[in-house]
Amino acid sequence: MSKRGGFRRVLRTVHLWIGLIVGVPLVVVCLSGSALVWHDALEGWMHPERRPSSQDGVVLPPSHYLGEAAKVLGEGLLPSTLRMPAEAGAPVVVSALDRVDGRVRFTAVWLDPATGRVLDSADQGASLFGFLHRLHGSLAVPQFAGRQIVGWIGIILLAAAVSGMWLWWPRREVGLAALGWRQGLKVSANIHHVGGVWIALPLIVVTVTGIYISFPQTSRAVMGAFMEMQPQQPRAPFGRALEQPARGADEVVAGVLEQVPDGRLAVLSLPQENRPSWSVQVWTVAGTVKTAQFSVEDATGRISRADGAAGGGDEVSRLMRRIHDAQGMGPVWETLVFLTGVLPAAFAVTGVMMWLRRRGNRRKLEMRRQAVRLASGSS
User: Fold this and answer.
1) How many angstroms separate the CA atoms of 149 and 138, rounded?
2) Which of 14, 85, 332, 335 allows an S-S link to 90, with CB 3.0 to 4.6 Å?
């Protein structure tokens, strides 16, 4: 056997056992990710009451939405984040965080942008999509390093994609013939080979960005060897929103928008007891092409740029998240990301089918050989 043939056999064995050992958690992570690609559309279909009645894009001052949301959140629960609609026809979302039985609860309030009328409110963590987010991000076991487990599953999936590309690489066919349906192969084998090669590059991109998200510190250290990365600020622990901020939401947003003349408010995070500053994210061009992040000290009103404009570190992190989640990347990339979740699940099933068929064929071949040996021995 040649060295190349021996390497292919080892690689095929590795590729096979990847599917057999981590097939089930891999399918769970991939399928939950596919569902989350269409999160907004599916949630709008499941909850039509959250759709604004007006489509004219009129917006009210931020304080109006925060005030209306506070009325339905209940006593002791204060708004923490305001998210403006990215497009006409989407609602304003005000969220509030509190801790219940050691778990951070995320309550959301949906409002009509034009009227400020409350459309709905719900505990997002208890919803279907809240569960899917936990399942995709940490296998719903964050207390047991679930995010790191998902990161290692991503590394294994990356190895499967690269090894699958190597095993597929044609030795006879050239051009488009190598990318098409192959005569003589079972349907399951064709789905595995043809689907695998067509989705391989998007799958590698989505997997690499997922690994970055799961291991941010290590990923930033690796990327720091090739580009300047601004030091990442430590994430503030859970804290209650300030009951009486020194500044109002309208004043804070107006001050930031003075520095971005063509900007539009995207996200406003209110100050907390352990983080006494406002965080303001602004769309700097039409739509959601680019955003700028600002921090506003509640006590002094001092505004500072907080999006890593000089070093680009935070921009890289946001880009990785956008690519992985297909946020604002257009319908083509959304479809490709959706397929990078659905097809690996199909590959796990077809791979097992191919393995069982190969085992059955080897068993039949061995039985024939034994029959020939018995026949020659009896003669």
Assistant:
1) 7
2) 85
